[in-house]
Design goal:
CATH superfamily of one domain in chain B: MetI-like
Distance between the termini of chain A: 30 Å
Strand content of chain A: 35-45%
Number of strands of chain B: 0
Structural class of chain A: alpha+beta
Strand content of chain B: under 5%
CATH architecture of the largest domain in chain A: 3-Layer(aba) Sandwich
Helix content of chain A: 10-25%
Shape of chain B: globular
CATH class of one domain in chain B: Mainly Alpha
Largest sheet of chain B: none
CATH class of the largest domain in chain A: Alpha Beta
CATH topology of one domain in chain B: MetI-like fold
Oligomer: heterodimer
Distance between the termini of chain B: 30 Å
Largest sheet of chain A: 6 strands, mixed
Strand order of the largest sheet of chain A: 6-7-8-3-9-10
Structural class of chain B: mainly alpha
Radius of gyration of chain B: 22 Å
Number of domains of chain A: 2
Largest interface: A-B, 26 and 20 residues
Number of helices of chain A: 9
Order of helices and strands of chain A: EEEHEEEHHHEHEHEEHHEEEEEEEEHEE
Order of helices and strands of chain B: HHHHHHHHHHHH
CATH architecture of one domain in chain B: Orthogonal Bundle
Number of helices of chain B: 12
């Protein structure tokens, strides 16, 4: 288990403050946050590559805060792969072996297994400069895995790849994580990546952790307007609470349970908002009349903006449904969502 | 840029003027002595010894710069600390100080009236009028060129490569020798060439510290003073030719790809 307690890092004007994280052994943990939130600084601090000013990091109860990077058993894989340009693929992969005492036969077998699993056997004599993005990614992964670290830190491993390679590497990461049992700590700013890969996650903003927990839990209960926005919730409104009702200007919205504070935010995922031309006779408790004031093409879907009194709701509608309903600017429309679709924080 | 543009024509004209400015005296120097005179000069033992001493002392200065300058260049390229700019300015000082002043400054600390000079004398190390003195002066004037060139070369090597190396278990020294140095070797070579070139051309400081043993620039000056232009030119030609050959050979090695990583 990795435990980070009250960690602080100072780098010029930027500061990481009071970072507290617990990462289960063998888990796939994802660290998310917008650009400049301090994700890379945190992972470099974990790997011992930047000095910390406060707190400590422990692996299985052993404090590693003052250990040099080479004695932490934390591998790192950067977004740009950082392959050694003067070495071949084989030279890159086996680079770390001389610093680890392993039986040569076992290491050779593991090397062969790795290059076969990652499909890079035919590249062994090539130089990094001649490889594609996906091939570089696999080489960097093999290099990090061969020395069998306790933890592998992946700094936005998929962001530099095109869509085809991204899917491929995503599956590969999931598969390797399942077979090796190594703890993966991945940095990303893509929430959908996190959803498909991670067991646990933390969200950073301005040098602090603003939310941590199980990935589904963060997705369902963001806990703050920043996290809600980050995980893709578009309908975030300030509201006052009274019992199981949230008041949003002149709108009264039924919420799933009473909130402990008088004021806060409510959020509803756009995909949880149903629109219809007529009021629905259903169990849905929140149903409001409004009119469309904007339609934005999102590829397969339309993002429909609907004015309801003091608020503008956003709903996602398939293009086929939009045509069937004859949606257009000014169309009178009914906005409906279940009480359970309202997130409160 | 079109070849008819006034800016292009102006740039071209300036280029021609600059090249003529550099080449004209050198061509004149190289073509003035007759082949017979050049042959005769080469057979002169003093000329041979002076050129050899120039090359050897400049190489020694480059070697010393390599040994003590490499770690410092790495430190300056990779670390950010209070006073770094001051240290960089101090390293650049020998470039801006007039050459005779360098000689006088070294003489000040290496002389018998200074504790360092006394200590060196007790250790049997003589600076005044010795090869050691020449190497000291040449290292003083050449080392900034080596450090600055190598520092830029190391800065061009991504620190992430070093980070990955260390995360794979390599200690810092091993990371330096397996990653940083192989990727910055062209800068090392370029720095050594710069250092050597600066050292081999030094005259003002050397003449203060060690008139004898005589390096080539001092010999050329002496011949000019004693016998005039015609006697100094052949020695100068040989010095230029030897240096040009050496530097061209080294430069060819550094040509393919200037960026390490």
């Amino acid at each position: 288990m990795i435990e980070i307690n009250g960690l602080g890092v100072e780098r010029g004007e930027f500061r990481l403050k009071d970072i507290n994280l617990t990462i289960d052994d063998g888990g796939f943990f994802v660290l998310m946050g917008p650009t400049g939130s301090g994700k890379t600084v945190l992972l470099e601090a974990m790997a011992g590559l930047v000095p910390t000013s406060d707190g400590n990091i422990a692996i299985d109860g052993r404090d590693i805060t003052r250990l040099p990077p080479e004695r932490r058993s934390i591998g790192i894989m950067y977004q740009d792969y950082a392959l050694f340009p003067h070495l071949t693929v084989a030279g890159n992969i086996t680079y770390g072996l001389r610093y680890h005492r392993h039986d040569k036969k076992i290491t050779d077998k593991r090397f062969r297994q790795l290059v076969d699993d990652l499909g890079i056997r035919h590249l062994l004599n090539r130089r990094p400069g001649t490889l594609s993005g996906g091939e570089m990614q696999r080489t960097a992964l093999a290099r990090a895995l061969l020395v069998e670290p306790r933890v592998i830190i992946l700094d936005e491993p998929l962001s530099a790849l095109d869509q085809r390679f991204r899917e491929e590497i995503r599956l590969l990461l999931k598969q390797i994580h399942a077979t090796t049992g190594i703890t993966f700590f991945m940095v990303t700013h893509d929430f959908s990546e996190a959803l498909t890969l991670a067991t646990g996650a933390a969200i950073m903003n301005s040098g602090t952790i603003v939310r941590t927990g199980a990935i589904r839990d963060i997705f369902q209960r963001p806990g703050s307007s920043f996290v809600a926005d980050f995980v893709g919730m578009k309908n975030i409104f300030p509201a006052t609470f009274s019992g199981t009702t949230a008041t949003l200007g002149s709108l009264r919205i039924e919420i799933p349970h009473a909130h402990h504070k008088a004021g806060g935010y409510i959020a509803i995922r756009p995909e949880d908002i149903v629109i219809s031309l007529k009021p629905l006779e259903s169990s849905i408790r929140n149903s409001f009349a409004g009119s469309i004031n904007g339609i934005v093409d999102q590829g397969f879907l339309y993002e429909v903006y609907i004015s309801v009194k003091d608020a503008t709701f956003i709903s996602l509608v398939t293009k086929g449904s939009a045509v069937d309903l004859g949606l257009d600017i000014g169309t009178a429309i009914q906005v409906c969502f279940k009480t359970s679709a309202v997130h409160i924080f | 840029m079109s070849r008819r543009e006034p800016f292009y024509l102006m740039s071209l004209s300036c280029g021609v003027v600059v090249l003529a400015f550099i080449l004209l005296p050198l061509v004149e120097l190289l073509t003035a002595p007759s082949p017979a005179m050049l042959r005769e000069t080469l057979q002169d033992k003093n000329v041979f010894l002076a050129i050899r001493l120039s090359i050897c002392t400049a190489a020694a200065a480059a070697g010393i710069s390599f040994i003590v300058g490499t770690p410092l260049a790495y430190l300056l390229a990779r670390s950010h600390f209070r006073g770094k700019h001051l240290i960089e300015a101090i390293i650049d000082l020998p470039i801006v100080i007039p050459h005779p002043v360098v000689g006088i400054a070294i003489l000040g600390v290496a002389g018998k009236n200074h504790w360092l000079g006394q200590m060196l004398a007790e250790l049997g190390i003589r600076i005044m009028g010795s090869t050691t003195g020449i190497i000291t002066v040449l290292t003083f004037v050449g080392i900034p060129f080596y450090i600055n060139t190598l520092k830029s070369g190391i800065e061009a090597v991504s620190p992430r490569l070093e980070n990955v190396s260390r995360s794979l278990g390599a200690p810092m020294w091993s990371t330096f020798f397996r990653i940083t140095f192989p990727l910055a070797w062209r800068s090392v070579l370029a720095g050594l060439i710069m250092c050597c070139a600066r050292a081999i051309s030094e005259f003002g400081a050397v003449v203060v510290i060690a008139y004898h043993p005589m390096i080539a620039p001092v010999l050329i000056y002496e011949r000019y003073e004693a016998y005039g232009l015609n006697y100094s030119q052949p020695v100068a030609v040989w010095l230029v030719l030897v240096c040009l050959t050496l530097f061209l050979l080294l430069r060819i090695l550094t040509l393919p790809g200037k960026k390490a990583a």
